């Protein structure tokens, strides 16, 4: 069986999905993220934008093969906000995403069941509004070789339509290339067969 080398994520940030329940307002946002620093940045921006809100509940999932996630109730009863939001991320089968639901309290308590429903509904609304795209899992390699061997190296790059991320062309050349995971071993072997360069996989 071929190892899966694609994943789904959202194309771009979407916001302001509004759900109202008994006077409370729930506003949903979704952001593509690849690090916890980005998560913190988006949360800080939303707290400034909605400084008079009562809660900023969220869930995120980052990673493709090594998955990390977090669900945060931000003062709501345990598992009444973060988990329902995270459940929607799972149901969409997406990763590298942050979903935040901002709540303005309307004066009437909704109870745990009402909260679960409201946070789940708002998270679903915002993810339904997001464009979901498929991306490939890529492996990056660093190539080091002499300038005289440039043509041999470039021939393999053109043959396999390989993306060059970084290049330094001097007497000693260095390239950083990106290859779709399922072709990585084949292409690595092609370069190793040249015997005129050093190739090493870069950890993401």
UniProtKB/TrEMBL annotation:
Task: Report one GO cellular component.
Answer: cytoplasm
Domain Impact N-terminal, by residue range, is 22-126
Any one Pfam family here would be Impact_N
Gene Ontology BP term (one)? regulation of translational initiation
Q: InterPro entries, alphabetically?
A: Impact, Impact_N, Impact_N_sf, Ribosomal_Su5_D2-typ_SF
State the family named in the UniProt similarity comment for this chain: Belongs to the IMPACT family.
Q: What is this protein called?
A: Uncharacterized protein, YigZ family
Q: Which organism is it from?
A: Lutibacter maritimus
